[in-house]
Amino acid sequence: MRAWIGCLASYNNGRLVGDWCDVSTDADENAAMIAAVLAKGTPGAEEHFVADYEGPKAVTYLLGEYASAAALAIAAAFEESAAPLGDHAEPALDAYTDNVCPQRIDDLDSVDVADWWNDLYAGEGDTLADWAESYLEETGFLEGIPDDVARYFDFEAWARDMRLGGEIFTVSSASAGIIVLHSR
After folding, report:
1. pLDDT of 102-131, one tens digit each?
2. Which are the contacts of 122, defined by CB distance < 8 A and separation ≥ 6?
3. Vertex 100: Cα angle to 22 and 126 (nearest 5)
4. Given 97, 135, 141, 148, which is the most exposed site by the fewest CB atoms within 10 A?
5. Which CATH number describes the domain made up of 118-182?
6. Chain segment 46-72, per-residue pLDDT in tens
7. What is the number of helices (H) and of strands (E) in the chain?
8. Nearest one of 63, 24, 165, 88 to 96, comparing CA atoms
9. Is 113:93 a contact under the CB 8 Å cutoff?
10. Which residues, 6 or more positions from 29, have their beta carbon under 8 angstroms from its beta carbon?
């Protein structure tokens, strides 16, 4: 995760002084990085601002314009916790923030998104009906039902009812049409 951090006193005096900085999971490192930016600006400046972020929108919207060194560290740790998920990292971060709905950056402290994701992951497919057919086949849900009856099973309706009933939720994915997660 990166952030463009600027000197607020310089900005208020008509000068744009700042840098793109790599955000650390260590608040002390972030504080040193902010101090280095302030040192380039107006002498004696004590306040910084963040003009932009490079990172998941699911995280950066909680940080705002005046994120502290500690808040930046929490956001970086939250993003880092999803790294083991590879291509699923960004959908996992979005799914977590969309469904858990954290209100403050502190709500993300000590969250392991990869564990959360792995506990809830139900599969993926081009459509919800495709997922339902694969999922029910893998779990053996339709085993024992005669083929001449099973062929009438409506995968789309079953999956839609699961979603509307709150048992599953979906996340859009660039690699797969949708990713399906169990609700808690």
Report:
1. 889 999 998 999 999 999 999 999 999 999
2. 131, 135, 168, 180, 181, 182
3. 90
4. 148
5. 1.10.10
6. 999 999 999 887 788 889 999 999 999
7. 9, 6
8. 88
9. yes
10. 73
